[in-house]
Amino acid sequence: MNRGLLLRFENLVQLHGACWQLRALSSRKVYGAQWKPVPLSARPVASLLLHPQLWPKHRLISAALSQCRHLATKEETKKKKKKIPPTRGEVEIRQKMTVEELAQAMGKDIDHVYEALLYTDINLDSVEPDSILHEDHIKMVVQKSGMKYKSAKLKEEKERKNTDAVKRQVVSYPAVLTPRPPVVTILGHVDHGKTTLLDSLRKTQVASMEAGGITQHIGAFIVHMPSGEKITFLDTPGHAAFSAMRARGTNVTDIVILVVAAEDGVMQQTIESIQHAKNAGVPLILAINKCDKPEADPERVKKELLAHDVVCEEFGGDVQAVNISALKGENLMVLAEATVALAEMLELKADATGLVEGTIIESRKDKGKGPLTTAIIQRGTLRKGCVLVAGKTWAKVRFLFDENGKAVDAASPGIPVEIMGWKECPSAGDEILEVESEQRAQEVVAWRTYAEQQEKMKKDLEVIEAKQKEHRLEYEKKQQKLAHLTWRQRKAVLYKANKHLMFSRPKERTEMDENTLSLIVKGDVDGSVEAILNILDSYDCEDECKLDIVYFGMGDISENDVSLAEAFNGVIFGFSVKANESIKKLADKKGIKIKLHNIIYKLIEDLKDELNSRLPPSVVETTIGEASVLDTFSVTVGKNKIPVAGCRVHKGLLDRKMKFKLIRNRDVIWKGCLSSLKHHKDDVQVIKTGMDCGLSLDKNLEFSIGDEIICYEEKEVQQTTSWDPGF
């Protein structure tokens, strides 16, 4: 006992000596001689008090250092616990702030932030000081603390210099301008004879190359007149699906020839073609086709066009009207001369010098040549080696081809030409501009890509802000409903409200996959893909089956398309493209459908059939027989009393195998099967019209005199989509 007390006393003495030693170290004074290690057992305890220099050296240093560490830690703790001055005015917030950063910005401690977060839907068990808070939660914490917030200013990005390429200024010097051939677009309704007219003009069989005799995309040709003049013709599709392509053809043209069939008169695409010409400010020439038919009535066509502000010369207007038969070649030279005469009146001239300018009519991908574009040159002379920019791609011209596929060295204004050398396929309708070098072309493309990204970011930000506002309002409404509850009670209520969703998510996901048709769309040219996408944009039956366009592009069906269709459980639709045998075998192996078409309305019909197959079948009830309850009674089976109805069949028959329903006061009160059907005392399967019977239901339900018993059959019928693509 005495020994234990002695050891404790010894420890106290050592601590006392260490304190004196620290004081000496702090004042940098050294007292007495050097310390000498002396065994404790050799000195009495009293001498330790009187002679601190006799303490062991290693114990003194250890005690001193530990005391220093203790004091340092204490100072740091004091600094940490030092109150942060409260923030006055607005709190500067930014996105992705942590709890600790928010507390510092507000001039509060972390516990205050935690307390304010109780008013949000955050699970506080998972929140740490370094946890990142959502912007909405940051704003709510500041508001709950009675403060205002302002967004921190982002570092302003250095404004990028506009390096885009622009058109040259219009030159009006007569010496520079040279005559050019007119660009003529043939417009009209589908199957009114536009392609046949071009066939006759240039003595080639374009229609034989087009599927079903319907032009699917723009063709550009030069027609050489006997008098030596040249006319550049653009043949646009008349089908309803190709509205955008007709508009594009009108925008680069000088004259529009409106083809109207004499026996059909003005149709839907005829009116649309007139509108395109008016919007572009292009003069019209009326070609009334199929005048060789007995039912042809050219005068009726001219009168119908008056309602659309197309006034022919014989009615006092300025529109030339020519009656033709494209199939038999009648009056075609009269139409060509009228076109040349109008072109002379317009005095069409262009500058064939300087940098090239033009417009892309169509673009496509060729397996051997790569991306190709059909273009009309409007200024300058295009030659091999020119560096061009169109949209967000560029080209160094490697080869030029005419409409017959022959290589040419140059193309002057008004001449259609096919250009080879593009890095990627530009979009139809894009403007072509020549630049000085490849480096300059890359600079232009980089700027256009950057400008598009900035515009997209701006739109995305607007959408995000609108969604955030919508979600915030919805959340505030929910919070107002739960405002009277404690935090734990709110969590319990929210859990109960969302519990059923947690269990239904896998099922919902499966149903969503079944009711979604994923598409991969491939076309031969950019305009064809554009037309298909425009049709798909009109799809408005998302509640029946969701339509999801996974990918679209040009070129034949590839292995990547099949892999993409497999990943999304989709269908590949190809328009005027091919799929080789290896691709077809791969698709069959993976269970992927490849649907190839050459006529657009057949592709849309096939698409509608595919949509119909994704819809769940509807159940249709077919009535087989009807009977009336004339009397009611009950029979005892064992210990149970079973209600029985005495009925008479007045229409059709009652078949026990079928389903039945009980109607009372025009309301269906039961549906199911019969437990028994008797004629007199015999069990029967069928009761015919005019016969009496007794029947009981599979449910213990009381009958009333006057009830109707309906015997019916259920059949599953395949639903059809209500989507109307417009043709």
UniProtKB/TrEMBL annotation:
Cellular localization per UniProt: Mitochondrion
Keyword tags: Coiled coil, GTP-binding, Initiation factor, Mitochondrion, Nucleotide-binding, Protein biosynthesis, Transit peptide
Annotated Tr-type G domain residues: 179-349
Gene Ontology CC annotations of this record: mitochondrion
Alphabetized SUPFAM superfamilies for the sequence: Initiation factor IF2/eIF5b, domain 3, P-loop containing nucleoside triphosphate hydrolases, Translation proteins
Main subcellular localisation: mitochondrion
InterPro entries: EF-G-like_DII, IF2_II, P-loop_NTPase, Small_GTP-bd, T_Tr_GTP-bd_dom, TF_IF2_bacterial-like, TIF_IF2, TIF_IF2_dom3
Residue stretches in coiled coil: 450-481
GO molecular function: GTP binding; GTPase activity; translation initiation factor activity
Keyword Translocase part of the UniProt annotation: no
Record family assignment: Belongs to the TRAFAC class translation factor GTPase superfamily. Classic translation factor GTPase family. IF-2 subfamily.
Alphabetized HAMAP family for the sequence: IF_2_B (MF_00100_B)
Function, as annotated: One of the essential components for the initiation of protein synthesis. Protects formylmethionyl-tRNA from spontaneous hydrolysis and promotes its binding to the 30S ribosomal subunits. Also involved in the hydrolysis of GTP during the formation of the 70S ribosomal complex.
Protein name: Translation initiation factor IF-2, mitochondrial
Species of origin: Promerops cafer (Cape sugarbird)
